[in-house]
Amino acid sequence: MADENEDYSSLPLKTRLAHKIWKVRLNAYTEAEKLFSTLDPDTEAYVFNEYEPFLKKIASDANVAALEAGIGAVLKFVENTPNPTSPRDSILEAILEKCLVSTRAGVKTKSLELSLLLCEIDTPNPVIGKKLTIELYKWIGPALKPIISNLDPVLIKELESEFEKLPSQKPKPLRLLRSEMDIVPDDTDDQMDVDQPTDTVEDAQDISDEIDPWDLADPVQVLSKIPSDFYSNITSQKWKERKESLESLITILNSPKYADGSYDELVNALAGRISDTNILVAVLAANCVEKLSTGLRSGFASYSHIISKPLIDRMKEKKANVVTALNQAIISVFRSTGCQLKGFVDAISHGLSQKNPQIKSSTLKFFSECLKMTTERPSKGQIKEYVSISKPSIDDSDPTVRESGFELLGTLMKLVTEKALLPFIEGIDKAKEQKIKQYFETAVVQLAPQSAPKPKPKPQSTSAPGKKVLNSSSSSKPTLATSNNQKNTSSNTSNSSLPNNNYGAS
């Protein structure tokens, strides 16, 4: 086996690009990327021609770390070569077969960038670029839309029309790659670092289904784009100025991913507008909360306590568009915490303590959704707490509140099992218990059902065969013999169990 610690830098670059040790190839790809960035396409076009035959193999590297570096090199090649359309077909074949189904986010991101670059440079034949984008959409799905959002609006409309015609089921690879086949590699070092081979072609399809647009998007700097008069306008006495300030923010929040930063002032400002006397302003504020929490994801979790109570308080509204905006906002905030319920119990208790039945019913429905989505199974103490704040709702004078309460307890029962919940709702009448069980039967929760603990196996006796083990805790004592025969039997038995001390006696 080749020694990976050996210095291979003296080898020609072309030799290292095809080397059997992946670390050597990775370093060569990095060097090639720098080379392609500095070549003059007018005077050094011949150098690009010399490296073009390597591109497909680089974009199909079996090692994911090397592949990511390799795609970077190919990207620089296409950006700088005087004839970028020449290697297009071979590069795209490698991207479709290897890169788009990779489990490494960097590989997927760079390969998508490379694919779109090939579309962009293909101006003499825009039909090919359009077909390529449609083919990419077949494999990637909606995750591609944010990436093509900067294209010409007319072209986007044409593409979306073509996307709608595509079958809902994504295509499957027709064959496995050589790297996925059961072959013996030449180098043991490569064998330990390559992607794990898939057993079936369907497995590769499952990987492509997991592509998330958020992972592929570049984070947008939201805070730096907010106008200087935003915070004065959002608190203006004129509702139109408040509305316009939020509309300007909605425009800024038009990307799937936002950069981290200090959003305290912005979230507090939005919380204040959730309770705005003007319905339009309140809905816009809720829309902004939804977009911001969706774009920041876990980065928004620390602000959930600021916004959750104002959203619940506003749930007194009955208009469908307002209810929808509030629900979408608070569910998005809940998702940003990793669907962990502990940070929302205070806000839920606050909502259930209100006299308004609309607030109580909406809070219970939100509580039920949290239980369905949560990633943590409640402890006994948490079960007791959840029941104590929600159980009064099943005796409420409002039928909508009662029904929402039954649904909540039924969902909780599904999450923690019937056996775990029944002690906490003991004493309610049979009709109400039956309603809870009806919701229990139909509820669907994210966590897998909790299985009952297996009975512990009985301990096996460690005594020797044929012997009885006396229980030291037993109070029973052996009775005295009442006849000579019994005495002799007892004596013989006792003596036979003693060790023989007549060493050497005849």
From TrEMBL:
Q: Does the keyword Lipoprotein apply?
A: no
Domain (TOG) spans: 1-172, 215-449
GO annotations of cellular component type: cytoplasmic microtubule; mitotic spindle microtubule; mitotic spindle pole body; static microtubule bundle
Gene Ontology MF term list: microtubule plus end polymerase; microtubule plus-end binding
Tell me where in or outside the cell this protein is found: Cytoplasm, Cytoskeleton
Give one Pfam family. Answer: XMAP215_CLASP_TOG
Annotated region Disordered: where?
450-506
User: Does the entry feature the keyword tRNA-binding, yes or no?
Assistant: no
The biological processes this protein is annotated with in GO are: attachment of mitotic spindle microtubules to kinetochore; establishment or maintenance of microtubule cytoskeleton polarity; meiotic centromere clustering; microtubule polymerization; mitotic spindle elongation
- For this entry, the protein name equals Cytoskeleton-associated protein 5
